[in-house]
Design goal:
This protein is 70% helix and 0% strand. α2 runs antiparallel to α3. By secondary structure, the chain is mostly helical. The protein has a domain of 53 residues.
């Protein structure tokens, strides 16, 4: 479990993370939360953004591998989990 998951409940899916990030942004933009709550929301948002960035980078690498395989006619039949620890 990462430090983000230790402190905040991180949604399991990418889409869930983005949805939670949007909720956080909306709450912060409303500006009605107390300072401490706003800081916690901001911290959670930063952690979610980092997790999403890693997942997007992994997806980008996977697409690159698939495109390279398509160019040379190689068939990829194994799961792609480059450097990912679940």
């Amino acid at each position: 479990m990462s430090s983000a998951e230790d402190k905040f409940e991180v949604p399991a899916s990418f889409e869930g993370r983005i949805e939670r990030l949007e909720e956080i942004v909306q709450q912060l933009e409303e500006g009605e939360a107390p300072l401490e709550t706003s800081l916690l929301l901001f911290e959670e948002g930063i952690q979610l953004a980092k997790v999403c960035q890693v997942q997007l980078e992994e997806a980008k690498q996977r697409v690159q591998v698939l495109l390279e395989a398509a160019e040379d006619g190689t068939v990829i039949s194994e799961d792609y989990k480059a450097g990912r620890e679940d």
